[in-house]
Amino acid sequence: MSLSEVRIQTDDFDLSTEIARLRADHPQVGGVVSFVGTVRDLNEGAAVSAMELEHYPGMTEQSISDIVDHAKQRWPIFGALVIHRVGPLRPRDQIVLVAVTSAHRGEAFAASEFIIDYLKTAAPFWKKEQTPAGARWVDARVSDDQALNKWQ
């Protein structure tokens, strides 16, 4: 695996396997930070029985790669892995993994948070939830935009 990898996939991922791959053959790594996002069973006051994620193939991967490149310009990180699932998902399913390696924890924490904040607002994904009232598209959240503002 290269020191940066972006994957969009329908299949689930195994956290320990992915972290081991990210760290393999890199003895300079002193810190690994990972974030796993999962499907919630409740959103905006409504029960969610399923979620469908769509993306724009090619554009989505490039957008996320650009986000990772920006993180590498801001912090001395060794590697970054972003896996984002698409397709039908259920509550408790894993949606996204962001993992970052660096010599020290501070850089890894900051870069990981930066990547997920930008991913939530800038990557071209569309989410549709199934609720008791029917299907609905999920709009961008004000809190995600506010989180992004701290990096500007």
Structure report:
- With 152 residues, the chain is α+β, with helices and mostly antiparallel strands.
- It has one domain (3-132): Aldehyde Oxidoreductase, domain 3 (Alpha-Beta Complex), CATH 3.90.1170.
- It is 34% helix and 37% strand.
- The chain has helices spanning 15-23, 59-74, 105-122, 142-149; strands spanning 4-9, 31-38, 42-43, 46-47, 50-55, 77-85, 87-89, 94-102, 125-131, 134-137.
- The strands form 3 sheets. A 4-stranded mixed sheet has the order 1-6-8-2, sandwiched between helices. A 4-stranded antiparallel sheet has the order 7-5-9-10, with no helix packed on it. A two-stranded antiparallel ribbon has the order 3-4.
- Strand 3 (42-43) and strand 4 (46-47) form a beta hairpin.
- The longest helix is centred in the last third of the chain and has 18 residues, at 105-122.
- 26% of the residues are buried.
- The model has no long low-confidence stretch (mean pLDDT 93).
How are the secondary structure elements laid out?
Layout lengths: L3 E6 L5 H9 L7 E8 L3 E2 L2 E2 L2 E6 L3 H16 L2 E9 L1 E3 L4 E9 L2 H18 L2 E7 L2 E4 L4 H8 L3
Parallel strand pairs: 1-6
Antiparallel strand pairs: 2-8, 3-4, 5-7, 5-9, 6-8, 9-10
Helix pairs in contact: 2-3, 3-4
Key words describing this protein structure:
globular, Aldehyde Oxidoreductase, domain 3, 4-stranded antiparallel sheet, alpha+beta, 152 residues
